[in-house]
């Protein structure tokens, strides 16, 4: 157990000198409120950016299986 202590200190040494800046988080409402139209557009773009590529791959899955050499 005594041989483990220097190893632990050696591994913890690089982490001791790092200072993490404090996040500036406020509980105030937004200066300019987001309209429901902007929220709907933002959510639509977010979901489509994830779903369209996945859907394209699933639609062309048979092509991937056929072109595979294995």
UniProtKB/TrEMBL annotation:
GO biological process: mitochondrial electron transport, cytochrome c to oxygen
UniProt xrefs under Gene3D superfamilies: Cytochrome c oxidase, subunit 8
Keyword Transmembrane attached: yes
The entry's keywords: Membrane, Mitochondrion, Mitochondrion inner membrane, Transit peptide, Transmembrane, Transmembrane helix
InterPro entries: Cyt_c_oxidase_su8, Cyt_c_oxidase_su8_sf
Compartment(s) where it occurs, according to its Swiss-Prot or TrEMBL record: Mitochondrion inner membrane
Primary residence: mitochondrion
Parts of the chain that traverse the membrane: 40-59
Pathway stated in the Swiss-Prot or TrEMBL entry: Energy metabolism; oxidative phosphorylation
RNA-binding found in the keyword field: no
Function comment: Component of the cytochrome c oxidase, the last enzyme in the mitochondrial electron transport chain which drives oxidative phosphorylation. The respiratory chain contains 3 multisubunit complexes succinate dehydrogenase (complex II, CII), ubiquinol-cytochrome c oxidoreductase (cytochrome b-c1 complex, complex III, CIII) and cytochrome c oxidase (complex IV, CIV), that cooperate to transfer electrons derived from NADH and succinate to molecular oxygen, creating an electrochemical gradient over the inner membrane that drives transmembrane transport and the ATP synthase.
Subunit structure, interactors included: Component of the cytochrome c oxidase (complex IV, CIV), a multisubunit enzyme composed of 14 subunits. The complex is composed of a catalytic core of 3 subunits MT-CO1, MT-CO2 and MT-CO3, encoded in the mitochondrial DNA, and 11 supernumerary subunits COX4I1 (or COX4I2), COX5A, COX5B, COX6A2 (or COX6A1), COX6B1 (or COX6B2), COX6C, COX7A1 (or COX7A2), COX7B, COX7C, COX8B and NDUFA4, which are encoded in the nuclear genome. Component of the cytochrome c oxidase (complex IV, CIV), a multisubunit enzyme composed of 14 subunits. The complex is composed of a catalytic core of 3 subunits MT-CO1, MT-CO2 and MT-CO3, encoded in the mitochondrial DNA, and 11 supernumerary subunits COX4I, COX5A, COX5B, COX6A, COX6B, COX6C, COX7A, COX7B, COX7C, COX8 and NDUFA4, which are encoded in the nuclear genome.
Family as reported in the entry's similarity comment: Belongs to the cytochrome c oxidase VIII family.
Protein's name in the database: Cytochrome c oxidase subunit 8
Organism annotation: Moschus moschiferus (Siberian musk deer)
